[in-house]
């Protein structure tokens, strides 16, 4: 789950089971971001789509990393190959995809902080390097967001459309890494999904209350009313 879960949601889409030993060729696919802030949820939605549409070799792990920062260290340390999906500020047109690889990834995230979760994840990568457990290959697929200031909102159409190309890039690299992606005949069982059903994209979008009854800029309990600001 993203956001509020005290621990990271991790789903092993192969046949090895959740309690199996770490494979010497473990591939981790990590989606990070905050689904409550519109396009910030891009990476999480990509991992959700991969989980819904494909199954992989037993050494592949899909992780909804949310905004969990240092709690993700175990997944980075166990990965021999790491694929990261995220919303990234590239100073490009909204919906534009860009790939960054290997040693450039931590340097790029350090130079392009867009939110607190990216600062935390840069620290995760640096800590993994310091401990000597760092992936042999790293690929970051990022999407330029269109909107980040819509609390409770979902992906904007141009960013949602970019998911198709992002998934194609991810699957191409996963095939090259030997992840053996195969289309699912049926969606995964509820208990096996990478995130909980209530946070799934369709349920999240259909369950959003109207603007007349929901605050769009944060938690209204902690906002100063406009009339008090004017005083």
From TrEMBL:
This is Hydrogenase. GO terms for biological process: protein processing. PANTHER family: HYDROGENASE 1 MATURATION PROTEASE, HYDROGENASE 2 MATURATION PROTEASE. Gene3D superfamilies: HybD-like. Keywords: Aspartyl protease, Hydrolase, Metal-binding, Nickel, Protease. It comes from the Bacteria. GO terms for molecular function: aspartic-type endopeptidase activity; enzyme activator activity; metal ion binding. It comes from Vitreoscilla filiformis. CDD domains: H2MP_MemB-H2up. Pfam families: HycI. InterPro entries: Pept_A31_hyd_express (IPR004419), Pept_HybD-like_dom_sf (IPR023430), Peptidase_A31 (IPR000671).
């Amino acid at each position: 789950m993203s956001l509020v879960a005290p621990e990271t949601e991790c789903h092993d889409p192969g046949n090895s089971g959740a309690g199996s030993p770490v494979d010497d060729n473990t591939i981790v696919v990590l989606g990070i971001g905050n689904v409550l802030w519109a396009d910030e949820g891009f990476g999480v939605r990509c991992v959700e789509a991969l989980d819904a549409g494909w199954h992989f070799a037993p050494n592949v792990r899909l992780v909804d990393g949310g905004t969990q920062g240092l709690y993700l260290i175990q997944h980075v340390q166990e990965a021999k190959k790491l694929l990261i999906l995220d919303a990234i500020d590239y100073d490009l047109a909204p919906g534009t995809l860009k790939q960054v690889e290997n040693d450039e990834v931590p340097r790029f995230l350090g130079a392009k902080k867009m939110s607190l979760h990216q600062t935390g994840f840069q620290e995760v990568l640096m800590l993994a390097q310091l401990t000597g457990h760092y992936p042999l290959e790293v690929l970051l697929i990022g999407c330029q967001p269109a909107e980040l200031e819509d609390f409770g909102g979902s992906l904007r159409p141009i960013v949602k459309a970019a998911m198709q190309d992002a998934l194609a890039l991810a699957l191409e690299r996963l095939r090259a890494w030997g992840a053996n992606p195969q289309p699912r005949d049926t969606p995964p069982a509820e208990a096996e999904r990478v995130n909980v059903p209530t946070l799934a994209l369709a349920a999240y979008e259909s369950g959003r209350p109207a603007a007349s009854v929901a605050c769009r800029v944060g938690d209204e309990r902690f906002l100063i009313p406009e009339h008090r600001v004017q005083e």
